[in-house]
Design brief:
With about 375 residues, the protein is α/β, with parallel strands linked by helices. Helix content is about 35%, strand content about 20%. It contains twelve helices and 13 strands. Strands 1, 2, 3, 4, 5, 6, 7, 8, 9, 10, 11, 12 and 13 form a 13-stranded mixed sheet that branches. It is globular. The N and C termini lie far apart (about 45 Å).
Amino acid sequence: MVDWQRIWNDDKKISCFSPLRATLFFLSLFYRLTVNLRNWLYDKKLISSVKLFCPVISVGNITLGGTGKTPCVIMLSQMLQTAGYRPAVISRGYGGKSTQKINIVSDGRKILLDSETAGDEPLLIAQLLPGVPVITGAKRTRTGNTAIKRFGVDVIVCDDAFQHRKISRDIDLVLLDSAKPLGNGHLLPAGELREPLKELKRTDCLIMTRAHGDVKMSEKVNQIAQKMNIPIFYSNHYPQDIVRGDGNSTVGLEVLTGKSVCAFCGIARPDSFEEMLRKAGAQILSFNAFPDHYRYGLYDLEELNNQYTKLRADYLMTTHKDAVRLHNYPEFLKAVWILRIKMKMRPLSREESFEKFILRRLKTGAGQ
């Protein structure tokens, strides 16, 4: 199996002149040509975007996963609910096995699909957003129209949609990881960039995620933001509390102070989960990182439970995103504790909050 992270992180043990890297850079040239042609066709209106009958807010990124889109979608939808809007979330449903054109994950009152069918992130969003319909499907225009006609929503939050230009959006939000906003600076498959950096000009707002303390802004990103007058906000992911996997008990983070923990996860940035546990005061005895969106099997869970028992740890911990993939193992979930997180925003300047920015753009008809 190719260790993509080692290649993308410019691991010095992998020669810059290796056949593998040379091949990936060669392929990235064709990828660049394809992406540039597609964006040019949209920019010149030779391919048209479809306008829905309510505002659309896109939450996306310019690199491969791990920038915090799911917490942002949840935070944004809750903010819209508080402001009196009736939002729905639509998603491609990555990782879901359904072949249906439209999948109602949640009708706002009841969750109707599991993670295998819908994908783990749509199910997580549905669990944390009561009152908000969550719909997946390959065509965003179809799922968006379904949300409007069937549920009477008045704003659509489109998950992971920066590259999906077929649906017209009124507000484009792009998330960048503060630690490594542009990956290694190369396009796929030689790097993590899904589009050339210049395409950030299309966004209405940049959000620097995991921005703890003073963050040094990428010079290239800052130049584009200043030239296009794009506002920049910082966000942090904070641990909120821990909840038992079966949902029968919730306690504050203070219980982790000085306690021993065995942890596991299958997310794009496992180091962020590990860091949160350490900052909560936990003593990590073991940490098992699986691939992103990993589907756990019985053997995996037996090994994790054996490790937890052997080390006599106080807690067996995982993420909320991982927990939704464990519903077929209720007995295991009884032993697991979930670290729940929340996302908070702060502006680069004190002129306007993120909430005021979003609500102002909705009221003034952004993008029109």
